[in-house]
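Minutes, project check-in
Item: structure for the 219-residue chain
Input as provided by the requester:
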Amino acid sequence: MDKFKQLTELFLEVNAKINLSAYNTFDEVYQKNVLDSMHLAKFMDLKGLKVLDVGTGGGFPLLPLAIEFETAEFTGLDSVHKKLKAIQVMAESLNLKNLSTLHSRCEDAAMHLDYREKFDIVLSRAFAKWPINLEMCLPFVKTDGVFIAYQGPSVVEALVEYKDIEQQFGAKLEKIEQVQTENGLRYFVFFRKTKTCPKKYPRGLKFLKNFYKLSGNRK
């Protein structure tokens, strides 16, 4: 059995105990988590790069990409310890030596000198509302690095509504790639970090949720 199918079976075992995902059949997990994570490899070679998966949850796209790109250095960030513990169990079973986890709130880790602007590539998948996603993730990206957001079709509207908001965080929109999957279109939105992110970002998650809910201000 290849490692991707092995990962699928491991995930099902762990998921039955701690409920990481609503997907509970082999086909669901393989198609909607494992293969969905791997679509990025069509557009980006991560070999030898330092990669952060923000809000990694049950380990997607972190685990499949760590299998595919053995020479990359992966870190999975999440605020829920049981999820990271589950990822570590799966990584050990798969003998993945290129993966570590970080237990922290995103806004706290992004202010830490060991993590702020230290990653070549930052990823997020099903992480947060669009403007919050950008503000939380871009501070981790080093200058000339790339943030890649896994998104559904609603991102097309979000890119218009929050046009150029990434510039506040020292980045520019580079390209958008899309893949037709069994579950519809998957969008990959690429941002290039062009300069240092201002020190005031990211702001707290609670503040941001209120800000974007109650304010019409997009700045």
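Outcome recorded: The mean pLDDT is 94.
No further action items on this chain.
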